[in-house]
Amino acid sequence: MNVLELSEQEIIRRNSLNELRAMGINPYPAAEYVTNAFSTDIKAEFKDDEAEPRKVSVAGRMMSRRVMGKASFIELQDSKGRIQVYITRDDICPDENKDLYNVAFKRLLDLGDFIGIEGFVFRTQMGEISIHAQKLTVLAKSLRPLPIVKYKDGVAYDKFEDPELRYRQRYVDLIVNDGVKDIFLQRATVIRTIRRVLDEAGYTEVETPTLQNIAGGASAKPFITHFNALDTDMYLRIATELYLKRLIVGGFEGVYEIGKNFRNEGMDRNHNPEFTCMELYVQYKDYNWMMAFTEKLLETVCIAVNGKPEREIDGNIISFKAPYRRLPILEAIKEKTGYDLTGMDEAQIREVCQKLNMEIDDTMGKGKLIDEIFGEFCEGTFIQPTFITDYPVEMSPLTKMHRSKPGLTERFELMVNGKELANAYSELNDPIDQEERFKEQMRLADKGDDEAMIIDQDFLRALQYGMPPTSGIGIGIDRLVMLMTGKTFIQEVLFFPQMRPEKVVPKDKTEKFTALGIPEEWVPLIQKAGYNLVSDMKEVNPQKLQMDICGVNKKYKLGLANPSVDEIAAWISKIM
Fold this sequence. Notes:
CATH class of the largest domain: Alpha Beta
CATH architecture of the largest domain: 2-Layer Sandwich
CATH topology of the largest domain: BirA Bifunctional Protein, domain 2
Strand order of the largest sheet: 8-12-13-20-19-18-17-16
Oligomer: single chain
Strand content: 15-25%
Helix content: 25-40%
């Protein structure tokens, strides 16, 4: 790496790296380092009256250091927490050579470095459970300084809290910010609990294609890629539904998949274009059964994560204890807007939208218009878990017609804290009806609806072999984790959320500088001084430019012969 691309701290750390090697200390050893304890367990299991001090071998990052001559204290951070370590020169350097302590530990090791400690557990005079080191091993040298968060009286200082940096450099966020790792451990508990409940119910976890010929199973914009071997365009899946239902046709009692879906849509606090979803399909069930099953599932998940069926979110105590309210969507719209859409056609609903001062366009069919009304006036008002049921057929191309309410379907969406969490149906298993629904979707696509479904002929063929009565549900895992951890931004529960590309400072090519008579070896120094474009030098005083670039030469000890003010003036004079 070009030395000019490094900060002063990075240069110092690389020099320390070389000095460690010169001392015969490998800063990146290959051998296994055997540990037998974690920081949290050491503290929890400590007993003051033990006859013999407990011997431990631990490893982790050095997060703080207080050197007091021949003795020092450090704070070691392992995968579970932090513990204080007491280090003395003579304990880790029992022979005459004291360089491991005097040189390596005190001068060449830095905060963020990984070390191994062998020693015994004791309680200090201040009452803190600590490790008395008897052996120190260097395990990995950190070449970049950490943004160390300092705590005093329970208050954090020098926080690493810029969301842009935290999400882009999640590895740093996990190291320095307390509680971040806990969110993802809770996320793992959510997924593990869902999997346990479904497995215990006798359902089979399966995997279906991520690359698909047709983006089906939902109304959404897909990501498109090209399959070179087949010379055909493919889609990243927007849902797993149609493949899972093929497996129900094939004879499985119940199948589920927890995996990634991709929708080429916007990013905000509730949406990420790559998201995790759980879809479940069970034969011989309907949406009423699925509502009861979902209530019990979410109650179980909340207890597993929080120890109780309630969670505080945005200042609201939300109870996941079954049962949940059930409310038909048209009744919800009537309740929130005063308009009863029952029996209205598309033109009449457009008039309602105009009266509600909504922004709509000609591409929206009846189903999309109802969805827009619900989204704007209703969705955000349902804080406690609420099943919104009985959607119009135009909104539900994969759902069975309602058994007793003409024009409606047996579908529900679960709303929690003002957002959709789950979507479920009594699945449509009439292949003739399904084909007509697909054709209606194609008519919407012809009108310009770029989220309308495409006809999946193979799925229709599968239905023609017969699919038993089936209920299915999709639950957004990311949103569920947000609810279970009390987070209001989806980026907080994703290890690596989608981000805009990092901004790159524009720089002129070396040739543009050398055309002015500037020696090639001076171009990096000029750009390091902040003159990335030739035009940046046009109005600069030659003396200032000389001071700037010669300062870089001196700071980085490059040993180049400094140009004169007259030479620099000649460079500047040639800039057009």
